[in-house]
């Protein structure tokens, strides 16, 4: 049986220092130095980094029952409860089945209209000619879209409270990577208290909305309507308020920051690659002429779709997926002991020189349909795969493209200085370090 190799490590703490410093680069180095399966450890916990598409397929598609979500996400349960992201086994399966109508193709048309309308309102208010933080702008915009599509207009009056509370929560999410989280959470630290307060505020809003809807039932075309009416023949019937709360909280968290980060990176890549910006604007003019963007334009905006896909390749918002082995098993001949964490990194695979030519180059043409055969599954997996694949993948792709389209009808993104290079800030998601400073140049339609 092949024995995975890995770096020489310090006793007990293992590779935590390298992992803390720059985790995506640490993983890229492991893959380069030790190949398809690299071994490392953190505080005595054994881990394997898998960097071959067949090995990733084995974990996510062939043997999902032998693995569960890793410890980090188990800890996120304190906030997200038993929502889709954190639940396991039969309960997850049931919740996924109950949730899927909310993401059906037939619903997307309505969401897409909301996406365009809200984007128009936001983007039209952006200032031209001054430095902005595109990450923050995109965060507010995607949050407004989740608010509308999830809760109809219910939270608009409290949008700022929701945004502020979510910011506290997101800024504390890195805690779940902290091995001392369980201790931190019981200590009355100011950050713990702020986190609890933010969570209580969100809970109050979400439970308030659920109570209102129970009094005035009916389909309002949003995700919440689906959850309120969801029932399961085989089991106990409707979803309880607690389950609805957990799913809503999950979608609040999972459904906006990822897309916002991707959009900030897309605007940066367009600002840094003028020739693609020009081509994108030309496509947009060809599709829309002089009129504003509509939801129906999405399928025709092929280049913008490729640009969004290429952005997710270079800057995957979910830059790593981990699982914990529940039993002793084998992955393509490699022994994996129960309790081992297996890590599969989009950051590594999306830039792997064995699978991509000029991996660091921004080249949206990679995603032309005639080049699809170049790509093996799991050399590109921004939305994961298998039974835990992102339920919002269509939602995010439509949202990303439509927001870019609306944006480019109003502005050209420009770098703050020629050659400016944005750095990554790998949290749970791959944020730009210190935000994404850009200057927006107004354009005539
Ligand atoms: C570019 C944007 C997005 C990216 C890159 C992304 C990525 C991912 C990935 C990689 C997973 C799988 C995690 C794992 O297997 O451990 C996931 C799961 C999930 N995502 Fe997304 N996501 C995005 C947008 C969204 C949106 C817009 C929503 C909802 C509106 C959403 C909701 C979810 C949920 C609920 C799960 C858990 C699914 C399950 O386990 O059944 N995501 N996402």
Automatic annotation (TrEMBL):
Q: Name one GO molecular function term.
A: oxidoreductase activity, acting on paired donors, with incorporation or reduction of molecular oxygen
Keywords recorded for this protein, A-Z: Heme, Iron, Metal-binding, Monooxygenase, Oxidoreductase
Coiled-coil ranges per the record?
none
Q: Cofactors per UniProt? A: heme
For binding heme, which residues are annotated in this chain's numbering? 390
* Key word Iron present: yes
Q: Which Pfam families match?
A: p450 (PF00067)
User: What family does the entry list?
Assistant: Belongs to the cytochrome P450 family.
The protein in question is named Cytochrome P450
Protein's organism: Turneriella parva (strain ATCC BAA-1111 / DSM 21527 / NCTC 11395 / H) (Leptospira parva)
């Amino acid at each position: 049986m092949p024995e995975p190799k890995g770096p020489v490590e310090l006793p007990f703490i293992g590779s935590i220092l390298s992992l803390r410093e720059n985790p995506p680069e640490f993983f890229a180095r492991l893959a380069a130095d030790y190949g398809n399966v690299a071994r490392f450890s953190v505080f005595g916990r054994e881990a394997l980094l898998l960097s071959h598409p067949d090995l990733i397929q084995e974990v996510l598609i062939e043997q999902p029952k032998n693995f569960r979500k890793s410890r980090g996400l188990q800890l996120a349960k304190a906030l997200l409860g038993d929502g889709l992201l954190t639940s396991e086994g039969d309960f997850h399966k049931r919740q996924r089945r109950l949730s899927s109508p909310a993401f059906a193709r037939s619903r997307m048309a309505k969401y897409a209209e909301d996406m365009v309308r809200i984007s128009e309102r936001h983007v039209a208010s952006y200032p031209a000619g001054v430095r902005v933080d595109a990450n923050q702008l995109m965060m507010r915009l995607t949050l407004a879209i989740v608010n509308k599509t999830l809760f109809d207009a219910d939270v608009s009056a409290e949008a700022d409270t929701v945004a502020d509370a979510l910011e506290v929560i997101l800024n504390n999410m890195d805690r779940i990577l902290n091995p001392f989280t369980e201790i931190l959470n019981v200590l009355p630290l100011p950050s713990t208290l702020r986190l609890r307060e933010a969570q209580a505020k969100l809970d109050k809003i979400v439970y308030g909305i659920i109570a209102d809807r129970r009094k005035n039932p009916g389909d309002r075309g949003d995700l919440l309507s689906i959850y309120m009416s969801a029932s399961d023949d085989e089991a106990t019937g409707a979803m309880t308020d607690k389950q609805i709360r957990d799913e809503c909280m999950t979608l609040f968290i999972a459904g906006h920051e990822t897309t916002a980060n991707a959009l900030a990176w897309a605007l940066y890549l367009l600002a840094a690659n003028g020739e693609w910006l020009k081509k994108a604007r030309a496509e947009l003019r060809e599709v829309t002429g002089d009129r504003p963007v509509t939801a129906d334009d999405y399928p025709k905006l092929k280049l913008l779709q490729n640009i969004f896909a290429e952005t997710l390749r270079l800057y995957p918002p979910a830059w790593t997926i981990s699982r914990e082995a529940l039993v002793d098993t084998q992955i393509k001949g490699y022994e994996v002991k129960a309790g081992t964490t297996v890590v599969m990194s989009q950051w590594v695979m999306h830039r792997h020189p064995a699978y991509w030519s000029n991996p660091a180059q921004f080249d949206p043409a990679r995603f032309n349909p005639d080049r699809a055969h170049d790509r093996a599954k799991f050399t590109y997996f921004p939305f994961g795969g298998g039974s835990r694949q992102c339920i919002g993948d269509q939602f995010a792709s439509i949202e990303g493209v439509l927001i870019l389209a609306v944006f480019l009808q109003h502005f050209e993104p420009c770098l703050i200085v020629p050659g400016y290079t944005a750095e990554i800030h790998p949290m749970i998601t791959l944020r730009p370090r210190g935000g994404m400073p850009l200057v927006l140049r107004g354009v005539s339609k």
